[in-house]
Amino acid sequence: HPVNIARREKDFQGMLEYKKEDEMKLVKNLILELKPRGVAVNLIPGLPAYILFMCLRHADYLNDDQKVRTLLTSTINSIKKILKKRGEDFETVSFWLSNTCRFLHCLKQYSGDETFAKHNTPRQNEHCLTNFDLAEYRQVISDLAIQIYQQLIKCIEGTLHAMIVYGMLEHETIQGVSGVKPTGLRKRTASIAEDDTYTLESMLRQLSAFHSTMCQHGTDPELIKQVVKQEFYIIGAVTLNNLLLRKDMCSWSKGMQIRYNVSQLEEWLRDKGLMNCGAKETLEPLIQAAQLLQVKKKTDEDAEAICSMCHALTTSQIVRILNLYTPVNEFEERVSIAFIRTIQTRLRDRSESPQLLMDTKMIYPVTFPFNPSSLALETIQIPSSLNLGFLTRV
Amino acid sequence: LGPRPPTRPRVLLKAPTLAEMEEMNISEEEDSP
Question: Which residue in B18, B23, B24 sits closest to A150, CA to CA?
Fold first, then answer.
């Protein structure tokens, strides 16, 4: 076994020294050419962020404001560059989102500001920046993190979109419920869903894959919750919009299928310990649409029940579903024009937009709650696979 | 350990915006084809 007797760990001060002319090599090897699926898999979560911060600490220790500025600028621009190049790859985007947040947390934790030092060990307090206040740079990095988050959501949306329609609406897991299949449905969709590639199960697998990648990258738990809430919003909005545009989706049995699918999504949240992240609540309009497909729609009492039940749906959505409602067997009836008029009259005083379709591109505002790390900077070692041999531990 | 020694006030480094930062990046080498 090789024995490193050069220095004891406690002698390190948690800084990394580098020459000015090596700065480009640093961002090239650590940001531009690092493959999240290759070398980075075995790294401790957030290692690139810690390395960059330890380099920054050394520039601060030298009291070299120019070195601090150029390192921060190169870091930010390189992250932007890699996201421009591989912005459609979920793993790359997730990897840099978690590292950008970790870098931001380090800038706070070691800023010297007491509000961010509450959980620091005495040794960590010794590692605070000594010469520069980087509050303005923190704001820029927070803006960058917002951009990366939005990119991540676009990636997720692009992957999930097609899965949602098949998984939530078309694929039927409850056998024998639908009775007569609406004419033409199978034929029209056969070319895409021929081998049932997209089922609810495959969509849940995809959600799990997103989740496990973010966990592997050490993404802050509070941020993962926000991503999951946004994923559920997209699932609810895309499903509801398709239902509102397709007569063949507005039946009692589809209502049943949707409710089952929603219960599976809830089960997924429970399994991941994410019941309190607000995701379930984003499905409320879809849940109410499914209930609307299943309740009785005949008497004044039915109308009253519908109006008090469907508070998360707009009047135009309720009316559209009632208009599109299609009986699938002889025991059911179409909804009468008179009943729809009754509903319209009852909902006349609701103050709301005449919105029919949900905005599937809407993104909830994201926040990055401060999440300090207990990791001791002086213990961090750099794996040789990163090709950063030109950095010196100080 | 006792109280931390007082440090002198840190100098606030003014930061450009994200967009301004991108413009400052003109010296950076171009992507190889």
Answer: B18
Query: Do A31 and A47 form a contact (C-beta atoms < 8 A)?
Result: no
State pLDDT tens for residues A369-382.
Answer: 999 999 999 999 99
Please tell me whether residue A84 adopts helix, strand or coil conformation: helix
- pLDDT at residue B24, rounded to an integer: 74
For residue A128, what is the nearest residue in chain B, using CA coordinates?
B7
B residues 8-27 lying closer than 8 A (beta carbon) to A = 9-18, 21-22, 24-25
Q: What residues in B contact A68, CB-CB < 8 Å?
A: 13
Phi, psi angle pair for B11, to nearest 5°: -90, 125
| Distance between CA atoms of residues A353 and A340, nearest Å | 19
- Rounded Cα distance, A94 and A156, in Å: 11
CA distance B11 to chain A (A): 5
- DSSP label of B30: P
Residue A188: pLDDT band (50, 70, 90) is very low
Each residue of A254-290: pLDDT tens digit? 999 999 999 999 999 999 999 999 999 999 999 999 9
Q: Among partner residues B7, B9, B28, which is closest to A77 by beta-carbon distance? A: B28
Which among A265, A194, A197 has a CA at the least distance from the CA of A234?
A: A265
Which of A164, A168, A46 lies closest to A96, judged by CA? A46
Q: Name every residue whose Cβ is closer than 8 Å to that of residue A330 and which is 6 or more positions away in sequence.
A: none
Note whether A132 contacts B1, CB cutoff 8 Å: no
Gap between the Cα atoms of A157 and A231, Å rounded = 8
- The predicted pLDDT at position A175 comes to 59
- φ/ψ of A194, rounded to 5, equals -50, -50
Does the pLDDT of residue A195 top 70, yes or no?
no
Token pair for A174: 């409850």
CA atoms within 13 A on the CB side of A284: 11
